[in-house]
Design a protein that fits this description.
The structure holds 2 protein chains of 2 kinds. Chain A is α+β, with helices and mostly antiparallel strands. Chain A is built from 16 helices and 12 strands. In chain B, α1 (5-14) crosses α11 and α2 (16-48) runs antiparallel to α12 (350-377).
Chain lengths: 382, 387
């Protein structure tokens, strides 16, 4: 019998326990990776190259306060600005939904917004049809798939923020943006429904280059300082991060809880894995008696618990990776999560935790083994 | 004959190391479950604790919250003379047209920014909300750009101490007092004069009406009258009902709590199983002896289940106790309905404690069941022979 087969035989001599140990490691690491992915997605919104080029301009008071439509002229003439469009969150409740609509509807100026939505892929004739018809809209492919929308369908919305209900005809379906869920329609249509109040929700601005974007942001902020409608311009990414900051304590809390979760599972796993070794006290004493050194014994035990922990990591973390890469997370979570990407760092961390687990659960009982004399060990019955 | 309880209890103590790990493991599972659910319960409690049963809240049909509602001044002039509305001593109808404005303000210690809900409130509106008391300072003077902020928000936002002032829009407001909403949704609001609020933020429209009806019959009649009048497009409901529904924020927290509890309990069941299998394995001879002495299989299974259940129960108690440490602790997040910072307290309710304990015991029993069955099936002679 070689040393490796000895280790393997030892690890598998109680198959049930080996399985339970591996599974509890796997479950904990699966959970660890899942929490990490979810937390990352919540606190680190998806961004593409465009999101640092695009700038959102909102009222300084808050997002809920509208901006005067006359600001358009000032913005358009500003150096470094390629395109400006109104960008108004309509916040309608879709007729088919009961309480909550999972996609947003934005009123924009299609002509002006073209450079802003250049990452959206829409067949040419659909785009033309949308631009031509004031009452039509573009729908993101994810939403279209989820609700089974087809071109030509009519969508009815109840205004939850604006005091008007709207109906759109679907002119086209777009895809290829970071978030293919939104509905885009004509600001003019919303204005008419509201009786032309001369306001927009926010402005959507595209800067000429990434280098120029911060300068443009500054220029916009300064241009409207001390006017009746002061603004806050920030990159789309910063804007979204602002939302994350509003989560306040909940974010910290979830982070803290992940740590508790991992700690709990590690505690339990270390204990069960140590048990396998403690039970072998007598045997280890025999090995000691026939001349194995402490160090050699430690290597034997370590290899076994390390191997089990790693197997658990492969199943748990690897399973999470395989699962989240292969299921349609958008459908599974009703659009709550979009990417759910398992990064290499997370996998690395999971394996590091597993390694620590393996070492820890070997070291603790080993200290006992080292302390006990051969004679005492042989006497142990447990 | 059943085995004495003492047998189960003392057995648990013999393997103290794995016993402690199992107990603590289950304690942490229960802790996470109870803590997250207590957050959701806190949000629900604060909403459920808001309003006066005699009041009727009117918002625009279709809007989910007061802050997203707009009602025209014409509607106000018409509705205020409805005869179903109660009158005060001066003979004026008890109705308040409020204006709600979301304002983005900086948190203390450069902790980012968040939206705060400002309520432009009338003298009637303050009478209609007796829950709200002044905690410090004085009430605002109309026309002086003064504001009274919630004492709980004051701990979270910069420039919210009495005497401080902050700028928003074209105006700068001076904080002259702190209000105490008594654990209601008003703890997440700042109050100022309604007309001043409308002029500062250029609001032509009102956000909501709060109306007092003299009795229940009049209230029903009034709500039906407002709802059915086609000119208005307004929704009228009891103020308490309105607030009870403002709990969308709690839903994802509840979901997360449930998800974590299920996932963690799977791990905990594996661990408990391992512990109990080991306990059974080590006690093979002992169990054989018990059987020879005449204890039935059922008695052995019961004793082991009691052991596992007891350990888990202990874990549950520890978990609940640790979670209870946070009971009443104030925290905040963004409310989904108001889109502003809402303040609430962790609320470890008796139901949650009961749920946590039941949950713990179930985990313990599932983890023990298979090892216990195995123990009862050991052949007596072989068991006695084993070391």
């Amino acid at each position: 019998m070689t040393i490796p087969t000895f280790i393997l035989k030892n690890a598998l001599r109680n198959k049930r326990r080996a399985l339970l140990s591996v599974l509890s490691v796997a479950v904990s690491l699966f959970l660890l990776v899942t929490l990490q992915v979810a937390l990352r997605e919540l606190t680190n919104p998806i961004s593409d190259e465009g999101s640092s080029l695009r700038i959102i301009v909102r009222n300084k008071v808050s997002l809920a306060q509208p901006l005067p439509a006359r600001q358009l002229q000032v913005l358009e003439r500003m150096p470094g600005v390629v395109a400006v469009s109104p960008f108004t969150f309509y916040g309608g409740l879709y007729k088919g939904d009961e309480k909550f609509t999972s996609f947003a509807q934005f009123a924009i100026d299609p002509q002006r917004a073209l450079p802003l939505i250049d990452d959206a892929k829409v067949p040419k004739e659909q785009l033309a049809a949308w631009m031509a018809d004031r009452t039509s809209c573009l729908v993101g492919k994810m939403t279209a798939d989820r609700y089974g929308f087809k071109i030509g369908d009519r969508l009815q919305f109840t205004g939850q923020i604006y005091p008007c209900d709207l109906e759109f005809k679907i002119a086209g379906i777009y895809q290829g943006t970071a978030d293919d869920r939104n509905v885009m329609f004509h600001q003019k249509y919303l204005d008419e429904a509201l009786g032309n109040p001369g306001t927009v929700g926010t402005w959507w601005v595209r800067a000429a280059s990434i280098e120029e974007a911060p300068l443009v942001t500054d220029r916009i902020n300064k241009a409207f300082a001390n006017t009746s409608a002061e603004v806050r311009a920030e990159s789309e990414r910063a804007f979204v991060l602002g939302f994350v900051s509003m989560w306040a304590n909940i974010k910290t809390l979830i982070g803290g809880i992940s740590i508790v979760v991992v700690f709990a599972l590690i505690l339990v796993t270390v204990s069960t894995m140590s048990m396998a070794i403690r039970e072998r006290f007598r045997e280890l004493a025999i090995l000691k008696a026939i001349g194995f050194k402490r160090r050699e014994l430690f290597v034997l035990i370590l290899a076994e618990s390390f191997g089990l922990a790693m197997l658990g990591a492969i199943i748990g973390a690897g399973g999470a990776w395989a699962l989240f890469n292969n299921i349609n997370i958008q459908q599974a979570t009703n659009g709550l999560f979009l990417m759910f990407e398992v990064t290499p760092e997370m996998l690395g961390m999971a394996f590091a935790v597993a390694a620590a687990l393996g070492v820890l659960s070997a070291v603790l009982p080993m200290i006992n083994v080292a302390r006990t004399s051969v004679v005492q060990g042989l006497k142990t019955l447990d | 004959m059943a085995l004495p309880l003492n047998y189960s209890f003392r057995n648990a103590l013999v393997r103290w190391r794995s016993t402690i790990a199992t107990v603590l493991g289950i304690a942490l599972v229960v802790f996470v479950f109870v803590l997250l659910q207590s957050l959701a319960a806190g949000i629900e409690k604060s909403s459920g604790n808001t309003g006066d049963p005699r009041n009727i809240m009117v918002v625009r049909k279709g809007s989910t919250a007061e802050s997203a509602s707009l009602i025209s001044r014409e509607n106000f002039t018409e509705i205020r003379y409805f005869e179903e509305i109660a009158r005060n001593e001066a003979g004026e109808p008890v109705i308040s047209a409020d204006v709600l404005v979301l304002v983005n303000l900086a948190r203390r210690e450069n902790n980012g920014e968040a939206n705060v809900l400002l309520r432009g409130v009338t003298a009637r509106g303050m009478e209609l909300r007796p829950q709200v008391k002044l905690a410090a300072g004085r009430w605002f003077e109309p026309g002086q750009r003064e504001i009274v902020v919630s004492a709980k928000l004051a701990k979270r936002f910069a420039n919210f101490d009495i005497g401080d002032s902050f700028k928003t829009g074209s105006a700068s407001f001076t904080v002259v007092g702190w209000l105490d909403g008594g654990g209601s949704a008003f703890d997440s609001e700042c109050w100022l004069d309604a007309d001043e609020c409308r002029s500062t933020f250029e609001r032509d429209m009102y956000s909501s009406f709060l109306i007092r009806a003299p009795d229940d019959a009049a209230a029903e009649k009034l709500m039906a009258r407002i709802e059915n009048d086609r000119r208005f497009k307004l929704k009228a409901e009891k103020e308490v009902e309105y607030y009870k529904k403002q709990t969308m924020t709690a839903a994802p927290i509840k979901w997360l709590g449930g998800f974590l509890a299920v996932m963690m309990s799977v791990g905990a069941v594996f661990a408990a199983m391992n512990t109990m299998y080991a306990a059974v394995g080590a006690r093979t001879r002992e169990i054989g002896t018990l059987r020879v002495l005449g204890f039935r299989r059922r008695a052995v299974v019961t004793a082991l289940l009691i052991e596992g259940g007891f350990l888990a129960f202990l874990g549950g108690i520890i978990g609940c106790a640790v979670a209870f440490y946070w009971n009443g602790y104030t925290t905040a997040t963004m409310g989904f309905e108001t889109f502003s910072e809402i303040v609430f307290q962790f609320s470890v309710t008796p139901q949650l404690v009961a749920q946590g304990l039941v949950f713990a015991v179930v985990v313990g029993l599932i983890g023990t069941l298979f090892p216990a069955i195995r123990a009862s099936r050991l052949p007596v002679i072989a068991a006695l022979k084993s070391i």
